[in-house]
Amino acid sequence: MSHHSYPVKGAGLGLRRTLLGPLQTFDPATVNEIVSFMEVAPENWINVGGQRGKAFRHFTERFPFVCHGLSLSIGGPTPLDQTFIRKLRQFIDTHRIRAYSEHLSYCTDDGHLYDLMPIPFTEEAVRYVAGRIRQVQDMIGRRMAIENVSYYAAPGAQLSEIDFINAVISEADCDLLLDVNNIYVNSVNHSYDAVEFLQGLPGDRIAYGHIAGHYNEAEDLIVDTHGADIITDVWDLLDKAYELFGVFPTLLERDFNIPPLAELLNEVQKIRDIQGKYSPVDRDNDGQTEKHSNGHRQSA
Fold first, then answer.
1. Which among 29, 84, 110, 250 could bridge 209 via Cys, Cβ 3.0 to 4.6 Å?
2. What is the pTM of this model?
3. Which of 18, 71, 67 shows the shortest CA–CA distance to 41?
């Protein structure tokens, strides 16, 4: 079980532009009580000014923030985008971002592919990716976390997915963003045991976690969409992760088909309820200690 300190606490919500309005008009006390931290893709906000930039600062001043990148392409064949990384560091410093994470995949090959491509699970790829992660960590002056991704094919694999992830984290000396839904999706698509996979991850490297919904294309093919409610099996896997590693901060990802804010907050509350089973006392944004019941609260 992990006892290291986390960059944020509790349950989080991904801040999408479409949520700016609803979050500003929703009862702030309810939002503050349920949402402990927020996450953004830095690429969507780095050059944003004016009214939208002001609205963003309104939230970064109220909540601790983490960043989840989309375009670093840590496993890509092209050189790292130094200009972007410098802007990223400035963004992290300006908004006092608590953690930065990226996908263990690549999305560029002489131009953006607009999809997250799997890195071949090979020793050579481990060395290549770990070197790039160390380079980014040096440039941004802090550790970063990498996320276990969903993938649909494993071309040229020499290592298993779990061995590949562990080798990269160890060699790069970086942290893990544990995506519970991706483990579930991959366990169905690649026929492995999700709990066994979870047990193989380095719990002491977890920075925070993600949970999300997905789309069932067929009985043996799930597509990771972040566009649906979270299913019971994925909630159960999150519960198991807390049992194995202790409670870690966990964020609800919802990228499209976004329901009314009250429904999203119910899912964030459910994260808190499961956390409450293992760690009954949490701290809210004001540093006040508050107890959370296991009862599912309906937010108005």
1. 250
2. 0.89
3. 67
